[in-house]
Amino acid sequence: MKRLEHLLAPIKVRNMVIANRVVMPPMGTFLGNDDGTVSEASLAYLKRRVMGGAGLIVQEITAIHPDGAASPAQLGIYEDRFMPGLRQVTKTVHELGSKIIVQLHHAGRESQYQLQKGTAVAPSAIPSMVFKQAPREMTEDDIRDIITAFGDGAVRAREAGYDGVELHAAHGYLLAQFLSVHANQRQDQYGGDIVRRARFIIEVLEEVRRRVGDDYPISIRLSVDEWIKGGYTPEDMQLVVPVLVKHGCDMISASFGTHGSPAGITQAPIEYEQGFNVGLARKMKEVVDVPVVGVGRFTDPFFADECIARGDADLIAFGRQHLADPDFLKNAREGHPEDTIECLACNQGCFERLLIENGTIRCAINPETGQELIYPAGPAETSRKVWVIGGGPGGLTAAYEAARLGHKVILFEKESEVGGQVRYAAMAPNKDPYGKWINGLTKRAEKLGVKINTGTEVTGDMIRQEQPEAVILATGGKQVPLEIDGRNLSHVTDAYEILAGRTAPGKHILIVGGGLVGMETADYLAARGCNDITLAEQLRRSPVLKLTSHGYMLHSRLKKAGCKMLFNARVTGIDKDAVTVIIDDQEQILAPVDQVVIATGTRSNAELENVLKEMAIDYKIVGDAVEVRRIVEATDEGAKAAWAL
Ligand SMILES: Cc1cc2nc3c(=O)[nH]c(=O)nc-3n(C[C@H](O)[C@H](O)[C@H](O)COP(=O)(O)O)c2cc1C
């Protein structure tokens, strides 16, 4: 049997023939110009994704009304000034042989920008799930205006060359707000039971169909399960979806959850398996005959092919995989899927950067993403002899990028293996893909000629003797020394010793430090059956935000496992079987404690900088060696140091 035959089979959606079943789902990028028009950066980003060969691209949330925009820079389609850029988008995608539809969007109450301006509207004046502020309840005039605005947007989409439109009725935005009792308490014809609450969507759909004509494809994206206590269910959606199809909907995109659901489930974290959500697409297929798109943590085209073969979905959307490695489909088709870099679902560079940091889209493991305009294709004008000192994510990325640009690279790592702290992080529950990523990056770097010297600590003398042309210093962090009485007792160990499996833990465990390392060590121990774990954190609240998907999962797991978390808690002494802690200025003795684990973090280590300065060697410092941060900062700085060589 031909491999990928189901995934690569064409499919027709009304009059649109899509060459294969791979969809790039809509992903907001905030790469547009400040006025919401398409920018050079948006086009370059999109082009790079389309080169991977997905049959259908769904353009990110595109505002149909100025009061529905999530930010002023969100792409818009509500005025003619947007048209030149939108035409360039469709031209770019069509030249590469894919189809593109645009996601028509109104944020309703889920826009901090509109809430702050006082222009946010929603079915009822119930506060936003995410931003907690209340919108204004829509009048019937507002409803008619917005219905018209969706129609206008669809007409512009058609004029700009899009092959169809998608109505964004998922994730808690305006159309989804009408569906939800958590947002819609209206007493008029737009409120009531689930079918009555779907009336607004139906009227939008009817208007769009009336304005674009019979031959133009209309997709609707739904959160098939609202995934909020008391919210609507897949069974409710099984009642709504046939009505939508009857009114002219040609495709259902079966997403999951809202931005108010726990754990940022819409962009599910690493704890969720590939395709975990595809059962919801199947539920839609049970009640309608139009094509249904499945989504959720897909990274492997072969697995997607199986899902289509067994009838779970007709098309499969690969979201974040398109950010981590847009060539995943190409690699699979060409017979070298092992070259694909798998998405880690970390959300650091993508969703969380957009949501928490107001940034533009990036990817923690693909520095090209969102930076296509400055990403050098190479080779560099002159090939230089480069030393990369330190083999964590920043150093490895720097080495790979430098070698890709044609430099001669030697990487030194003082430990016996590369990977830095990620090696240990990968030991925590669910995180083995991190180890796989490090292994893959190492292999790719070696394939490009990077010489890796593990077990080699670079000294000032080595630099003086060998005089490398350029150095990228990626020496990471050094453990913060813990100066407490009892630190050297035999039952006191380091978190990394535990995570590496080199120290068998005791029964009554106190972890000093409740940051990510401390919490993941607790998670590791709880997964191995330890049921008396306490974390003592000096800060007043957890530095691991529940707002992040992984943070949320970690906090919930530790709570479920009965781990105790003490805040504003300073460990002042360690005894054979007890620990002294000052909590809120009160001294307490914790006992029994037969295992103390130190997870007090690291501090930047760039000790070799003085020698580099003294020798006037061209150097850059990257990652934790500058300041202790996350993978996304390390890889970005590592790549940029290599690009600047
Ligand atoms: C950075 C980012 C932006 C997103 N923006 C949108 C959007 O504009 N519209 C939408 O319907 N879904 C959006 N999503 C959800 C994705 O389309 C997709 O459903 C989700 O990422 C799950 O798929 P994946 O696990 O393959 O990434 C976004 C996701 C991410 C990561």
SSE topology:
Blueprint: E1 11-13, E2 16-18, E3 22-24, H1 40-50, E4 56-63, H2 83-95, E5 99-105, H3 112-117, E6 121-122, E7 136-137, H4 140-159, E8 164-169, H5 174-179, H6 194-197, H7 199-212, E9 218-223, H8 234-246, E10 251-255, H9 278-285, E11 292-295, H10 301-309, E12 315-317, H11 321-324, H12 328-333, H13 351-357, E13 385-389, H14 393-404, E14 408-413, H15 421-425, H16 432-447, E15 451-454, H17 460-466, E16 470-473, E17 477-479, E18 492-494, H18 495-499, E19 509-512, H19 516-527, E20 533-536, H20 549-560, E21 564-566, E22 569-574, E23 579-583, E24 586-590, E25 595-598, E26 602-604, H21 609-614, E27 618-621, H22 631-643
Helix pairs in contact: 1-2, 4-7, 14-16, 14-22, 19-20
Description:
- The structure is a single chain.
- The chain has 22 helices and 27 strands.
- By secondary structure, it is of the alpha/beta class.
- The chain folds into three domains: 11-357, TIM Barrel (Alpha-Beta Barrel), CATH 3.20.20; 385-479 and 604-643, Rossmann fold (3-Layer(aba) Sandwich); 492-600, FAD/NAD(P)-binding domain.
- The strands form seven sheets. The protein has an eight-stranded parallel beta barrel, surrounded by five helices.
- A hairpin with a 2-residue loop joins strand 23 and strand 24 (586-590).
- Helix 4 (140-159) packs parallel to helix 7.
- The mean pLDDT is 96.
- The structure holds flavin mononucleotide.
- The site of flavin mononucleotide (FMN) has 27 residues, from strand 4 and helix 13.
- Flavin mononucleotide binds next to strand 4 and helix 13.
